[in-house]
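Onboarding guide, step 5: your first structure request.
Type a short instruction followed by the sequence, for example:

Predict the 3D structure of this protein.
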Amino acid sequence: MKFSTRHDTESRAEDLFGVVGDFGRIERMLMCRGAHVCRIDPTQEPGTGMGWQIDFDWRGRPRSLRLEVTRHDRPERLSMAGMSDALDINIDATVIALSRTRSRLIFETDLRPRNMKARLMLQTAKLAKPQLDRKFDRRVAQFLSDMHAAR
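The system replies with C-alpha cells like these:
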C-alpha cells in the first residue's frame, strides 16, 4: 500500500532538506511520543548506512522496527528502508526547488506485508484508503510545521 503527499513551503530547498533530514530532532520527537529509539550504526554524520532500532506500543502491543537510510543525496533525496515483524517499509522524501525561496516536498511511504496477517490488515485498510490518505497528508504537514517551529 502506497501513501504519497506533496507540500509546498516558503523555504529554500536546502533548508527544507535540513528539516527533513534532521535525524537528531526526529529521534527526540519519537522519544517524546513514547518510542524507544536506539542507533545501530557507529557513524555520527547523516548519510547512507545510518540506522535505528525503534520499539513502540501500537494498539496495545509492543512493536519493533529496524530502519536504515539507503539514500542521502543532499539536498534532493532521502530514502529509508525498514523492516518489522509484519511489514517492510520504504520511505522516500524528495525536495524540489521551485524558486530561490520556495520548495516542494514529495513524501512517499510504501508498505508491503511480510506475512498473511499483515496482508489481511493491508487489504482491510484499502477500504479506508481515502481516509488514510487524508490522515497521512495531515501528519506530514504537522511534522513539517513542528520541525520548522523547532528551528
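Each response can be followed by summary notes, for example: Residues 22 and 46 are 8 Å apart (CA to CA).
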